[in-house]
User: Which sequence fits this backbone?
């Protein structure tokens, strides 16, 4: 007589009457590898967290040094590049740091011109020394000057010109009217912006208006609120203002360090 039997168990796997199959635990070597991998991941995650804390402290210190040196109302944003940061700090120098600051107040009393936005890239930023200053081996920077601030400094209404790297300046006087001239914008020595090749664009250049525009455009306007060690290389007009580009070596940001 035929008798039914439970399904045969897989070869090499013990069979239990309830149909369950026993699964043997992973070999001891495999468990050790799993534990080692988990430990390595935890170590790496912890190392990244510690490195990020170190980077945040370096960023805060740099932001404070710049704010103290340039007198900005708000601290600039700072980002330390490269990983790991801890080894850079141990060497006493950060490979590259990017900084962005807004509304840097004007320095000096002669046609003061504030910087609307300053973006700075610093290589070899020293991490030792006073917390109130920061020193970089080399720096590239761009200062954005809004037309509103340029107009206030020159005493004439300034806007983008019809040709590249030219501005339009409009002077107005009661009972005399308006006159608009175009001028080329260029970098001058001493971190100054020069206005040359002045051309009449609109209106009659009467003596009172000519005198007003001569006073505004004849002398280059100084940028007195950039750190010492930065040198103006070029200027470019945009739709909203003027971009002034700087480079420098061995630049220190400290209180009263702006050029004058």
Assistant:
């Amino acid at each position: 007589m035929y008798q039914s039997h439970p399904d045969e168990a897989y070869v090499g796997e013990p069979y239990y009457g309830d149909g369950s199959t026993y699964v043997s635990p992973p070999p001891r070597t495999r468990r050790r590898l799993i534990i080692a991998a988990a430990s390595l991941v935890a170590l790496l995650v912890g190392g990244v967290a510690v490195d990020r804390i170190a980077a945040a402290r370096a960023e805060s210190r740099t932001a404070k040094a710049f704010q103290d040196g340039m007198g900005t109302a708000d601290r600039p944003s700072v980002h330390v590049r490269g990983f790991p940061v801890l080894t850079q700090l141990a060497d006493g120098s950060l490979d590259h740091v990017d900084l962005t600051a807004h509304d840097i107040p004007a320095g000096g009393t002669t046609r003061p011109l504030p910087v609307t936005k300053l973006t700075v890239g610093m290589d070899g930023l020293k991490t030792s020394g006073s917390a109130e200053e920061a020193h970089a081996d080399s720096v590239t920077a761009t200062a954005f000057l809004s037309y509103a601030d340029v107009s206030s400094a020159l005493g004439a209404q300034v806007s983008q010109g019809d040709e590249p790297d030219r501005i339009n300046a409009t002077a107005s006087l009661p009972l005399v009217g308006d006159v608009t001239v175009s001028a080329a914008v260029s970098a001058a020595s001493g971190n100054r912006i020069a206005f040359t090749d002045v051309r009449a664009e609109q209106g009659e250049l009467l003596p009172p208006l000519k005198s007003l525009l001569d006073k505004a455009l004849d002398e280059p306007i100084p940028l007195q609120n950039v750190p010492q060690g930065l040198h103006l290389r070029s200027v470019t007009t945009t739709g909203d203002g003027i971009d002034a580009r700087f480079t420098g070596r061995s630049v220190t940001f400290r209180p009263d360090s702006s050029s004058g």
The two ends are 113 Å apart (CA to CA).
